[in-house]
Design a protein that fits this description.
With 223 residues, this protein is an alpha/beta fold. It has two domains: 142 residues, Rossmann fold (3-Layer(aba) Sandwich), CATH 3.40.50; 64 residues, Orthogonal Bundle (DNA polymerase, domain 1), CATH 1.10.150. The chain is 43% helix and 12% strand. It is built from ten helices and six strands; from the N terminus they run βαααααβαβααβαββα. A six-stranded parallel sheet has the order 3-2-1-4-5-6, sandwiched between helices. β2, α6 and β3 form a beta-alpha-beta unit. α1 packs across α2, α1 packs parallel to α3 and α1 packs across α4. The longest helix has 14 residues.
Amino acid sequence: MSTEPLTSRAPKLVIFDLDGVLVDTQAAENAGIAYVGELMGLTLDEERQHELFSGKKMQECIDLMADLARTSPPADAVPLARAKCEELIGDRIDPIDGVAQALEALADRGFAMCVASNSPRDIIERRLTKARVLRHFGTRIYSAYEVAAWKPDPALFRWAAAECGVPADDCVVIEDSRVGVDAALGAGMRVLQYTADPAGTPHRDDVRPFFSMRDLPRLIAEL
């Protein structure tokens, strides 16, 4: 993880995670993975699912469950998990409360924005479309599958910044998971950690948590 001091100038690029940050799909994502665990005889409650899965590569989560269950996962474990997740999400996806307003405000202030997620690109685009926020990002969508580097590897964020033509220390990342926070810090970027729980604590000591997306434009302006 980078220990270089970060600049205090205003960021030129805001990099968003997807699930749990822009769209309200993290619980369904975790439950879809946990469904495969149930097929292996492993039962995990929501808190344990969040602890084990949030922000991680799906195959990594399945391998972890296989270790816990001491059995092999189904051969089609990833497609099974994805299908269950889509079933749980259904036809409607809501943006995280306050996200639509925050994106409008950031766009009005001239901030460049992109999405960098561990999910495949088609899933990112579909969820942003269903949540009616895709227009804020255009083609600036970056999937770990396209660079073969999943959070907490910082390569995904570095690639997104490079593709947008912005140095790492001119970026701020909006994340909710520990692996995402670690990836951003490892890339030498500033981080704001979103959590809907006012009692939530930062994943790392030098990361500022916030509890309402409506506060995001102000927090970014204060960086």
